[in-house]
Amino acid sequence: MLLMLLPLLCLAGTGAVHAQKWQLKVGGGLASQGVHNRVVGAYKIGVAYEYEFDQHWTFSPGLMFYGKGWRTPDESVACVDDDGNPMLNESGQQVYSLMSRSASANYVEVPLLFNYYYRLAESRYVVLSEFEVDKNDATTPQRDYWASGNSAYAVTGMAKNPQEYPTAPANNGVEGFAVKLSTSDAGEHGLKIKMPIAAGNLFLGSFNSTQAMLFPRKATRFGLPLLTERPVALRGSYKYKAGPEMVDATKTPQPALHDTADIYAVVYEIATKSEIAADPKKKFVPLNGDDVLSSDRIVLMARINKPVEFEGTLAELETAPWVSFNEPFHLLNGKTFSEERLKDNGYAIAIVATSSRQGAYFIGAIGSTLYIDELRIVWEGEE
After folding, report:
1. Which residues contact residue 34 at a Cβ distance below 8 angstroms, ignoring those fewer than 6 apart?
2. What's 313's DSSP letter?
3. Measuring CA to CA, which residue among 160, 127, 156 is closest to residue 144?
4. In sequence order, which ranges of 146-212 are alpha helices (DSSP H)?
5. Share of the chain above pLDDT 90, in %
6. Within this chain, do residues 82 and 175 fall inside the same structural domain, yes or no?
7. Which of 97, 98, 151, 294 has the most CB atoms around it within 10 Å of its CB?
8. Of all helices (H) and strands (E), which one includes residue 80?
9. Residue 9 domain-assigned?
10. Measuring CA to CA, how many Å separate 236 from each of 151, 162, 178, 277, 383?
């Protein structure tokens, strides 16, 4: 029989959306068949596992046990004895009684649900961009160079305004604006998936927020095939103060460690224009968080090995003096820089800045803050 059941109003033991989590669902409510029957109590108990694809879509298979039923309305019926004879009262009148029927049914269900979450609260963050402009049409931007992990941090719900994101603009630059990178608390969301902190970062490349919850270091795609000259140095200004306490990926304090920032640039080999023309299956493969400092494709690197830390407090850092740097590029992996490969578009360059050097592994100090400004590449032939 096809039952038309009233919605089961249940109180499920679940919280906010997280990347991966077990859910215990326990609740009760009301159920009935059709619109003429009376409602009866119902129950629901089970477990589910929610798997998050991105900040909107999740998939949650489960195993649920339901108890539902219904009860017919009371109706007046004539009473009869065991032999089927009418039962009469002392006045010889038919005796009547109220009667109703009830039924119950238990179910085992394996739901396979896709869920879409729509954020009602405002969640805006600043996207720091630099555009290449078509020489024939100065109004048309061609490429967005810079990226950060702000879109992944939006999932945590920890930031209430753009300035509370790990990567944000600052108005105290060497001249005009600068960029502020802060290692931030990822809240309950991050702690449950062993990503308790979010280091502020800014890099040349792109960020895949859909991939960030599953493979966070793969989500950071460092570098773009922009090289047309040989770089000789990474130049800019910064100021830095480490947060008070280092924690690991379980948010356990690490008193023996001290946080530090990281600012570097790498030039690495990619498929050349000629190679792609000969084999269309070849394509640009960027470095990521797992190999941006260790890939055997790296040819040149410029890096501040020991950033100077401001001796004052975090509160005083905003007005602290800037530290200028000019780090030369060095050859790595026994490679040489090939002018022939350069002409054949065979190199990509990545520039990376982060407020916690081990932030990609979710190790750092909440509150660590790095301001950067005037960041640029010095090319061969420049003074």
Report:
1. 4, 70
2. -
3. 127
4. 150-153, 187-192, 209-212
5. 56
6. no
7. 151
8. none
9. no
10. 26, 24, 11, 37, 15
Confidence of residue 134 (pLDDT cuts 50, 70, 90): low
CB atoms within 10 A of CB 28: 14
Q: What is the pLDDT of residues 288-303, one digit of tens each?
A: 999 999 999 999 999 9
* Total domains in the fold of the chain: 2
Q: Identify the CA nearest to 200 among candidates 94, 95, 328, 353.
A: 353
Same structural domain for residues 133 and 222?
yes
| Cα torsion through 371, 376, 377, 380, rounded to 10 | -130
Residue keyed to tokens 């309950």: 188
In DSSP notation, 245-269 reads -EE-TT--B-TT-----EEEEEEEE
Rounded Cα gap, residues 113 and 349, in angstroms: 43
Across all residues in the chain, what is the average pLDDT? Answer: 86
| Least confidently predicted of 26-30, 143-147, 337-341 | 143-147
- Which of 130, 172, 162 has its CA nearest to residue 147? 130
Beta strands in 88-210 (DSSP E): 96-99, 102-109, 112-116, 131-134, 137-144, 146-147, 167-170, 178-182, 184-185, 197-198, 201-207
Distance of CA 110 to the CA centre of its chain: 28
Question: Which of 103, 44, 42, 45 is closest to 68 using CA atoms?
Answer: 42
pLDDT at 136: 58
For 78, the enclosing helix (H) or strand (E) is strand 75-78
When pLDDT is averaged across residues 251-260 and rounded to a whole number, the result is: 96
CA distances from 179 to 91, 141, 370 (A): 98, 22, 8
Q: Are residues 36 and 128 in the same domain?
A: no
Judge if 295 and 214 occupy the same domain.
yes
Q: Which two tokens stand for residue 283?
A: 């394509």
Q: Is residue 155 part of a domain?
A: yes
The pLDDT of residue 121 is above 60 = no
What is the residue type of 254?
Q
CATH assignment of the domain containing 332: 2.60.120.890
Q: Domain range for residue 86?
A: 20-115
Q: What is the pLDDT of residues 201-228, one digit of tens each?
A: 999 999 988 788 889 999 999 999 989 9
